[in-house]
Design brief:
It is a single chain. This protein is mainly alpha-helical. It is built from 22 helices and four strands. The protein has a two-stranded antiparallel sheet with strand order 1-2. It has a two-stranded antiparallel sheet with strand order 3-4. The longest helix has 29 residues. The model has no long low-confidence stretch (mean pLDDT about 90).
Length: about 525
């Protein structure tokens, strides 16, 4: 073991700093900054100036990336609101740190490159174990952690780390299928299953979309590695994998819009207890195909609910919404009327669900993706009917995108700058008549729109060129893992401004530089000396 580690490290402290960085990446936001600085410091201090200068000359192409940081910095000096501008500059420091570090750092050979990815696998597994423990046992105040709150870093950004690990092991398995014995192959398949399962368990639609879209490229690579007689099978699998999520999504949407037909002229007016119902046909909200605002007897609801529940009818639930509103939606989702009989039909588990803020019975399916998709469809339906977008992920994103487009139309050439975007978004929300509270104002949650808002179309094209050209110039587009990495990040950036978040930018620019430098062939597990 000692000889193995000595040979692996090979007096390369820059390599050790990379190992330390991927160790903390899934585990601590604070340590990412500290160790990121250590990576740069190690590259600066290790080896002679002459050796570093030779490496810089060889890898100068990645020094284009800091020009994006420079763009943020220049925008700062053209913005009067310096306090806001420097906030954006701070968030983009990794645009500068990792290109500088990887341009100077000692070379990483194939075995070391694989070991970095092995380490990310282990640290991600540890993060998953901690997340599951937190989900099962940790309670904050009176509220248990949800599946999207259990990771130590953002569940969206952790999802990207998981996807990278999935594709590394998938390509590793394909590349070494003839050399790996059955036990090792099964172990790798188990790892891929665990990571994929956790991604689905956390219900991050951004991560799932990123995985599915990049799987198209993976299946293409797979067909280039197999015999001709197997390509038909792969093609069938490919079509099946592409159609399955589409069919599943269609079924969820179709079920949602399978809404009951109610005749307003022939609807019951009284409960079995003789109290009158209220029916509001002007509000079209539905739960599981049933109208929320029909068959409501508030008198009976309050009396019967207060008999069986600890959290009373007029209370505010732990999710910040009135219990009575949650109760009405939940009863509707079960196809029950909102009266005494409906409350009596609730089980002890139903009552517990309502008290915990659960508004639909399907949300109790913790291990299913269906509730997450249903929630997204429901949010869009509510938005389409009312224009209401507060505290709803998809609806808010729509309003954010609309506001961004409004800003871009008026400032398409150079954008509004790094210090003016918050003011510009606030004005755009008001101009668009968005039904969204000021406390929920935010940027577009779309990296490409954000670039255009701040720097205009020319700034956006400049940034895209800077990100694409090094890959073309170095011909690293032959690196399958790099291309999978860029593919899933490309699609993920439509759903969030990942490169302007702490973990998102550190993850992307670390691995962007990692793949563009060092050994090109690292997926083959050979015993020979590797350069």
């Amino acid at each position: 073991m000692k000889n193995y580690l000595t040979g692996l490290i090979n007096s390369n402290f820059f390599f050790l700093s990379l190992i330390l960085f991927v160790l903390v990446l899934p585990l601590s936001v604070a340590l990412v900054s500290v160790v990121g600085a250590l990576v740069l410091l190690t590259a600066l201090l290790e080896d002679s100036r002459k050796a570093k200068w030779e490496r810089i000359k060889q890898r100068k192409i990645i020094l284009l990336i800091p020009l994006i940081f420079l763009l943020y910095l220049i925008s700062t000096f053209f913005t009067l609101q310096y306090n806001k501008s420097f906030y954006d500059v701070q968030k983009t420091l990794f645009y500068l740190v990792f290109p500088l570090a990887f341009s100077m750092g000692k070379a990483i050979n194939s075995r070391q490159k694989r070991f970095v990815l092995y380490t990310l696998t282990v640290s991600s597994l540890v993060a998953i174990v901690i997340a599951v423990f937190r989900w099962k046992f940790i309670v904050l105040g009176d509220e248990s952690l949800t599946v999207r709150d259990i990771t130590l870093v953002s569940h969206i950004r952790f999802g990207f780390q998981i996807i990278l690990v999935i594709w590394f092991w998938a390509l590793f398995l394909v590349s070494n299928r003839k050399e790996l014995n059955k036990a090792k192959s099964l172990l790798i398949l188990l790892l891929i299953t665990i990571f994929t399962g956790f991604l689905l368990f956390q219900q991050s639609l951004t991560g799932i979309i990123a995985l599915v879209t990049s799987s198209v490229l993976f299946l293409y690579y797979l067909t280039t590695r197999i015999a001709s007689k197997q390509k038909t099978t792969i093609a069938i699998v490919f079509v099946g994998l592409m159609l399955a999520p589409i069919i599943y999504l269609y079924s969820v949407v179709n079920n949602f819009y399978d809404i009951e037909k109610v005749d307003p002229t022939n609807i019951e007016e009284f409960t079995t207890n003789g109290n009158s119902y209220t029916h509001d046909f002007s509000k079209k909200l539905v739960e599981n195909g049933h109208y929320v605002n029909l068959y409501i007897s508030k008198k009976e609801l309050k009396e019967e609910w207060n008999k069986v529940a600890e959290v009373k009818y007029d209370s505010i639930g732990i999710n910040g919404y009135p219990i009575k509103a949650t109760l009405i939606r939940y009863l509707t989702s079960k196809g029950l009327r909102k009266d005494a009989e409906g409350v009596k039909a609730l089980t002890a588990k139903d009552i517990e669900n309502i008290e915990s803020g659960m508004a639909n019975v399907i949300y109790q399916k913790k291990y299913s993706l269906y509730p997450r998709i249903y929630q997204t469809v429901w949010e869009y339906y509510v938005y389409s009917q009312t224009g209401y977008a507060n505290n709803q992920s998809l609806s808010q994103r729509i309003e954010f995108a609309k506001a961004a487009i409004t800003i871009i139309k008026e400032n398409w050439l150079l954008g509004v700058g790094t210090g003016q975007w918050k003011t510009a978004f606030a004005e755009a929300f008001k101009k668009n008549g968005a039904k969204i509270e000021e406390s929920n104002y935010a940027s577009s949650h779309n990296q490409y729109l954000n670039y255009m808002v701040k720097f205009g179309v020319f700034g956006f094209l400049f940034i895209m060129f800077i990100l694409i050209y090094p890959v073309v110039k170095t011909k690293r587009y032959h690196d399958e893992l790099l291309m999978l990495f860029l593919t899933f990040m490309f699609f993920a950036n439509f759903a969030d401004s990942n490169l302007e978040t702490h973990i998102g930018s550190s993850f992307f620019f670390f691995f962007y530089c990692f793949f563009l430098t060092g050994a090109k062939s690292y997926l083959l597990n050979t015993n020979s000396s590797e350069k």
